[in-house]
């Protein structure tokens, strides 16, 4: 079954991060499988209007002002005319929202359900339950997901978390892990320093990523092993802590702080090391450890969130998120490296490659789309009843919002009838005339160059589940081989 | 031929061919005056005037109001666009003529050597997403950009089917591309 999918998120290229590349890669693989995919996001600087990326991935940069952390101001009704217009002109069948932080995604899903378009949501991050911001976000999530047809989480831990936060039925939540473009993360043991043992850390240097743990570990490891050096990529408010440690213990020649890395540089840093250390305190799905394993490094990580699900036990050493436990695991990894009993980088790469492929993710997402599209559309009464179940007072408030939304839709239908909206012609298929291919080729070139330009600009400050992920613009000639999904 | 624009209004569209296809003209015309609408407004306003007993008012004030209305009418006639036409001549260029209700016309001419291409593009406005036809100009140094987009038919915004007809015609005259090699996009 062919779908027209509209991916909506506040986070998309030229912004860089886990969610952004997830949307990009998923869209590309879905396009390759013959679906029509469009992406809707807010305007980034002068990047407004309609743009095309590789393989005719159409992106709408809507003229909505950014409010906080790349999110738009939650106004609900102001986005309705544009979302309605997009749904009509592109004949959208499934609207797929991404990331719990994205207001635009939540708003669009709310509108979509009232316009009888199916809505799917992918949650990319874990949340707490205790602090004020979590309580508010969880309540909003509950409202946003009440009408949703299906929810996708990136790991089982994330599923559990989302089900509890948004009080969903577990059967309407699927787990589809993230993937990594393993072709971009190949091992190269020749890059390693022969005389030294290098420990690599690549993460944003913030509290959530456990930078304080790292600061405690560095002096101990350096004291015990004179031939060990640290290579730390990433930047953030906690960088000062590491600099202090380096200063106090005079480790300038052993601890190298690289600062923020572009995504294309991550592989170069990874291949220089033998052991990768991840000390995150919370993580829905850790892409960094998959990338490191794909480069053939031994991985030491904290046992938090979805991390234990990500790699098979023999490829990863798990520690409790405290200094003693992490030290013990790092010690054992170092000992393994010295004995030479660690796994061959190329063998590890092949195994990881078999585990994570975007094509699989696309295929599994497609199954979700197929399953929800065949369900008959619920009546408006049922939908409102569902909204009422959110809570005694909130329920009524949400119903009021929904009714106002419906009223605006009605007005729009009257003053801007759908007959007056042109349906967008399909993107040309591969067999086009020479003149056209020339045109598309030049367009591709253009997007590719602008893409590389933008890769350099932004390091996300946002609290996404992961900073780095696979490159946003891939070679369009990548071959897609469908793989059986079990 | 009757066509619709994006607001749902009816426009008349003519494609005229001169000199065996060396020159083509595309004309979009709006009916200037709708008699029924005028009649309805006139009746409603005179009834309102009678009800408010305007004719009992001081004549100087009424005269002032009349002058104001006449000025407004002139401004309206001066600014209301009734016709936009696009004249395409092979190897010479493209001329866009805008005719106003008062008979005033403005023209814009783009030399053929400065026409890089003519395209249909999409634009996102605050509440709408529209298709429009535009000339990609090159060779003109405009605000330090060598390439400039000149949107066409900005007063009428015809719908996509009409834009495609104009596009195909322009491409044939200027770049000698036939319809078959052009149609890269099929309607779903």
Largest beta sheet: strand ordering of chain A: 3-4-2-1-7-8-9-10
Number of domains of chain B: 2
Average predicted local confidence, pLDDT of chain B: 84
Q: Largest interface, per-chain counts? A: A-B, 31 and 26 residues
Q: Tell me the Rg of chain A in angstroms.
A: 23 Å
What is the general shape of chain A? elongated
The biggest sheet of chain B, with number of strands, parallel, antiparallel or mixed sense and barrel status, is: 6 strands, antiparallel
- N-C termini distance of chain B: 24 Å
CATH architecture term of the largest domain in chain B: Roll
Q: Order the strands across the largest sheet of chain B as they lie in space.
A: 1-2-3-4-5-6
Order of helices and strands of chain B: EEEHHEEEEEEHH
Kindly provide the name of the CATH class of the largest domain in chain B.
Mainly Beta
Helix content of chain A: 40-55%
Oligomer: heterodimer
Helix content of chain B: 25-40%
* CATH evolutionary superfamily of the largest domain in chain A: Glycogen Phosphorylase B
In the CATH classification, which architecture of the largest domain in chain A applies? 3-Layer(aba) Sandwich
The number of helical runs of chain B is 4
Q: Runs of chain B with pLDDT <50, length 5+?
A: none
> Strand-residue fraction of chain B?
35-45%
Protein name (chain A): phosphatidylinositol N-acetylglucosaminyltransferase
EC number (chain A): 2.4.1.198
InterPro entries (chain A): Glyco_trans_1, PIG-A/GPI3, PIGA_GPI_anchor_biosynthesis
Keywords (chain A): Glycosyltransferase, GPI-anchor biosynthesis, Membrane, Transferase, Transmembrane, Transmembrane helix
Give a structural overview.
- The complex is a heterodimer of chains A (about 475) and B (about 190).
- Chain A is an alpha/beta fold and about 475 residues long.
- Chain A folds into two domains: about 5-180 and about 360-455, Glycogen Phosphorylase B (Rossmann fold); about 180-355, Glycogen Phosphorylase B (Rossmann fold).
- Helix content of chain A is about 45%, strand content about 15%.
- Chain A contains 16 helices and 16 strands.
- Chain A has helices at about 20-30, 80-90, 105-115, 130-145, 155-165, 210-225, 240-250, 265-270, 285-295, 305-310, 325-340, 345-355, 360-375, 380-390, 390-415, 435-455, and strands at about 5-10, 35-40, 50-55, 55-60, 65-70, 70, 95-100, 120-125, 150-155, 175, 195-200, 230-235, 255-260, 275-280, 300, 315-320.
- In chain A, strands 3-4-2-1-7-8-9-10 form an eight-stranded mixed sheet, with helices on both faces.
- In chain A, strand 1, helix 1 and strand 2 (about 35-40) form a beta-alpha-beta unit.
- In chain A, helix 1 (about 20-30) crosses helix 13 and helix 2 (about 80-90) crosses helix 3.
- Chain A is elongated.
- Chain A starts with a strand and ends in a 31-residue tail after the last helix.
- Residues about 430-485 of chain A have low confidence and may be disordered.
- Chain B is of the alpha+beta class and about 190 residues long.
- Chain B has two domains: about 1-30 and about 80-180, PH-domain like (Roll); about 35-80, no CATH class.
- Chain B contains four helices and nine strands, in the order E-E-E-H-H-E-E-E-E-E-E-H-H.
- Chain B has helices at about 35-50, 60-80, 160-175, 180; strands at about 1-5, 10-20, 25-30, 80-90, 95-100, 105-110, 115-125, 130-135, 150.
- In chain B, the strands form two sheets. Chain B has a six-stranded antiparallel sheet. Chain B has a three-stranded antiparallel sheet with strand order 7-8-9, with helices on one face.
- In chain B, a hairpin with a 5-residue loop joins strand 1 and strand 2.
- Chain B is elongated.
- The two termini of chain B are about 25 Å apart.
- The mean pLDDT of chain B is about 85.
- Classes of the chains: A alpha/beta (about 475), B alpha+beta (about 190).
């Amino acid at each position: 079954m062919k779908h027209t999918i509209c991916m909506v998120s506040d986070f998309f290229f030229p912004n860089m991060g886990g969610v952004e590349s997830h949307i990009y890669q998923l869209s590309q693989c879905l396009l390759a499988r013959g679906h029509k995919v469009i992406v809707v996001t807010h305007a980034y600087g002068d990047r407004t209007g309609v743009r095309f990326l590789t393989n005719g991935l159409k992106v709408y940069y809507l003229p909505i002002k950014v409010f906080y952390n790349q999110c738009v101001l939650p106004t609900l009704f102001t986005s309705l005319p544009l979302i309605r217009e997009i749904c009509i002109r592109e004949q959208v069948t499934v609207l797929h929202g991404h990331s719990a932080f994205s207001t635009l995604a939540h708003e669009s899903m709310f509108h979509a359900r009232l316009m009888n378009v199916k809505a799917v949501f992918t949650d990319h991050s874990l949340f707490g339950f205790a602090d004020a911001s979590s309580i508010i976000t969880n309540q909003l999530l509950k409202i946003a997901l009440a009408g949703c047809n299906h929810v996708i989480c990136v790991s089982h831990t994330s599923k559990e978390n989302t089900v509890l936060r948004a009080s969903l039925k577990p059967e309407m939540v699927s787990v589809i892990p993230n993937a990594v473009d393993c072709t971009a993360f190949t091992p190269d043991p020749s890059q390693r320093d022969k005389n030294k043992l290098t420990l690599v850390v690549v993460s944003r240097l913030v509290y959530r990523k456990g930078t304080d743990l790292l600061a405690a570990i560095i002096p101990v490891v350096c004291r015990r092993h004179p031939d060990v050096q640290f290579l730390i990529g990433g930047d953030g408010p906690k960088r000062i802590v590491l600099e202090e440690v380096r200063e106090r213990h005079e480790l300038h020649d052993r601890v190298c702080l690289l600062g923020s890395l572009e995504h294309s540089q991550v592989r170069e840093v990874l291949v220089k090391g033998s052991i990768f250390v991840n000390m995150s305190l919370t993580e829905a799905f850790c892409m960094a450890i998959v990338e490191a394993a794909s480069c053939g490094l031994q991985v030491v990580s904290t046992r938090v969130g979805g991390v234990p699900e990500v790699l098979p036990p023999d490829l990863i050493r798990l520690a409790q998120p405290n200094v003693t436990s992490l030290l013990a695991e790092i010690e054992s990894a170092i000992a393994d490296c010295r004995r030479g009993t660690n796994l061959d980088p190329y063998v590890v790469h092949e195994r990881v490659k078999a585990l994570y492929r975007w094509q699989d993710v696309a295929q599994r997402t497609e199954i979700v789309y197929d399953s929800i599209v065949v369900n008959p559309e619920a009546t408006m009464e049922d939908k409102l009843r569902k909204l009422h179940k959110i809570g005694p007072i909130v329920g009524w408030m949400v119903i009021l919002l929904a009714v106002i939304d419906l009223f605006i839709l009605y007005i729009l239908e009257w003053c801007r009838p759908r007959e007056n909206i042109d349906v967008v012609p399909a993107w040309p298929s591969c067999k086009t005339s020479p003149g056209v291919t020339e045109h598309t080729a030049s367009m591709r070139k253009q997007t590719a160059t602008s893409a590389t330009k933008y890769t350099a600009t932004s390091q996300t400050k946002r609290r996404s589940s992961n900073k780095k992920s696979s490159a946003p613009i891939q070679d369009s000639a990548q071959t897609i081989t469908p793989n059986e999904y079990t | 031929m009757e066509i619709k624009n994006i607001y749902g209004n009816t426009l008349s569209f003519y494609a005229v061919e001169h000199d065996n296809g060396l020159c083509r003209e595309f004309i979009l015309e709006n009916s200037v005056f709708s008699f029924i609408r005028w009649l309805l407004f006139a009746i409603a306003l005179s009834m309102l005037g009678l009800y408010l007993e305007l004719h009992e008012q001081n004549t100087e004030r009424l005269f002032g109001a009349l002058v104001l209305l006449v000025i407004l009418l002139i401004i309206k006639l001066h600014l209301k666009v009734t016709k936009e036409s696009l004249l395409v001549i092979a190897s010479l260029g493209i001329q866009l003529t805008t005719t106003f209700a008062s008979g005033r016309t403005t023209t814009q001419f783009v030399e053929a050597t400065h026409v890089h291409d003519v395209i249909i593009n999409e634009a996102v406005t605050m509440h709408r997403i529209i298709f429009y036809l535009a000339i990609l100009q090159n060779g003109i140094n405009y605000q330090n950009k060598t390439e400039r987009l000149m949107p066409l038919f900005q007063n009428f915004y015809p719908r996509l089917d009409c834009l495609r007809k104009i596009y195909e015609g322009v491409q044939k005259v200027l770049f000698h591309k036939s319809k078959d090699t052009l149609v890269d996009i099929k309607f779903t």
